Amino acid sequence: MKAVPEVDRSVSQTVKAQLALRDQILAGSLRPGERISELQAVETTGASRTPVRMALVRLEEEGLLEAIPSGGFMVKAFSERDISDSIELRGTLEGLAARFAAERGVSARELEPLKECLAAIDELLRQVPISIEAFSSYVTLNARFHALLTELSRSPPLIRQIDRASALPFASPSGFVMAQSALPEAQQILIIGQEHHRVVIDAIENREGARAEAIMREHARLAVRNLRLALRNRTHLDLLPALALTKTATD
Amino acid sequence: MKAVPEVDRSVSQTVKAQLALRDQILAGSLRPGERISELQAVETTGASRTPVRMALVRLEEEGLLEAIPSGGFMVKAFSERDISDSIELRGTLEGLAARFAAERGVSARELEPLKECLAAIDELLRQVPISIEAFSSYVTLNARFHALLTELSRSPPLIRQIDRASALPFASPSGFVMAQSALPEAQQILIIGQEHHRVVIDAIENREGARAEAIMREHARLAVRNLRLALRNRTHLDLLPALALTKTATD
DNA sequence: TGTATTCGTTATGTATACAATAGCGGGGAC
DNA sequence: GTCCCCGCTATTGTATACATAACGAATACA
């Protein structure tokens, strides 16, 4: 780094490169199927080749990249079924987390942040129709709710696995909720989702593991229906460029 | 590589280092909690520092290593609950795979290899009591059965996730079956396991998704009971050195 | 004109040199 | 005698140079 001496030393070059590349993929400036040039990545991230390569390996393990047999990496492409499977997969994992939380018991104090999330989302949903900005807040709050719920399982292996499953952006139900936010059905879907959130908290409080698990899986099925709906109405799908999906990805 | 000119060029140094390090961890020559010295890894693997570091990153993402905040990696340590959670987690994932297989339908031809596995295991179980060598074959066959079953889901994201969940050696039910192979209950457990295998094939054939899923989860719960049993009777636990677990790992 | 072979360029895989930081030990002072 | 500070050493993080393999283009031959 002689051309750009002012390097941010507070975060490692590897992490910096990883975040930068992930942003590029998620923002869509790197298209699915496209080969990633290390040299180009070096230029755009500002890190040197070694940390860039480390970041590429991490992103491959994360599932965003795919190794090319002859060498190098390409942005992974996903079929519609890959995405719906990922959503259902995540829901199944979250169902297990909810069951663990219910069976192992959580204190009222631990449920407090969940309920705050719930209330904040309720507040947002009072708007009719919901503005785009509110939808954006919803996505953040919803992600927070799911992360908190996952934590309640107190199971590091499970939390780890859910984190991995959530790395794929479309695995998150709210992603597609946002993608179709202008659809009239959207708000109704969000309200149903809130109902699910309420039920899962109640089930965990009452230590009903099976019910807690069932509702999270139902929640995921709602997200899958949501996805199908969004894909039928191609509108607003371009809000999430990374989701540009290929029909023939893995079939 | 001037000191050791005869390098095996058929496989990349990175992969070679990754396999070598994983073997060392699984064989127990690197103990849980122990810091991994890059320099030492360079000596034992024969690769240079760059591929070794790549391998370390991969193994961290795989879950066998843990990053140390101040730098470097250490072998991850697991608590008893971590292990039982991992088994249940894997069972849940395999349950989903079985359900997908049942719902999406598989041809009789695709079920053939599964049935062959089943028959081969039946053959082994006819021995009373089972020899250690037969147990070893059982572990291989059982792993094959589970891998084939996973494939039937035809869901790349799910298969990928199950592979990740299986990377931790103890997440595999058969690992602990073997660990306690000398226990009188062991053979009975294997026989029950076979019954599960039979039921899941039947459920998939008849396209009963819910039943297929339920039996795989039941199968995992059997493995958890199996684990508990093995841990009570500390005998033969040293057959799997990598399983040396720490009570305070993640609590 | 089409195909095959060869050469050149480019990009990846590997090795090593350099830099920076964290941990540890010794020495000094209170 | 104990505690703190300074310096050294060892190990990690980063950068770059080198080797090798793959892709493409151009030319020659059929």
The total count of helices of chain A amounts to 10
Biggest pleated sheet of chain A: 3 strands, antiparallel
Q: What CATH first level of the largest domain in chain A would be assigned?
A: Mainly Alpha
Radius of gyration of chain A: 20 Å
CATH architect. name of the largest domain in chain A: Up-down Bundle
Shape of chain A: globular
Task: List the secondary-structure elements of chain A in sequence, H or E.
Answer: HEHHEEHHHHHHH
Indicate the multimeric state: homodimer
Q: Can you identify the CATH superfamily of the largest domain in chain A?
A: GntR ligand-binding domain-like
CATH topology category name of the largest domain in chain A: Four Helix Bundle (Hemerythrin (Met), subunit A)
Structure described in brief:
With 251 residues, chain A is mostly helical.
Sequence-ordered SSE layout with sheet pairings:
The structure is a homodimer of 251-residue chains.
Chain A: H1 13-27, E1 35-36, H2 38-45, H3 49-62, E2 65-67, E3 73-75, H4 80-104, H5 108-125, H6 132-152, H7 156-167, H8 173-179, H9 184-205, H10 209-232
Antiparallel strand pairs in A: 1-3, 2-3
Helix pairs in contact in A: 1-2, 1-3, 4-6, 4-7, 4-9, 4-10, 5-6, 5-9, 6-8, 8-10, 9-10
The structure holds a DNA duplex (30 and 30 nucleotides).
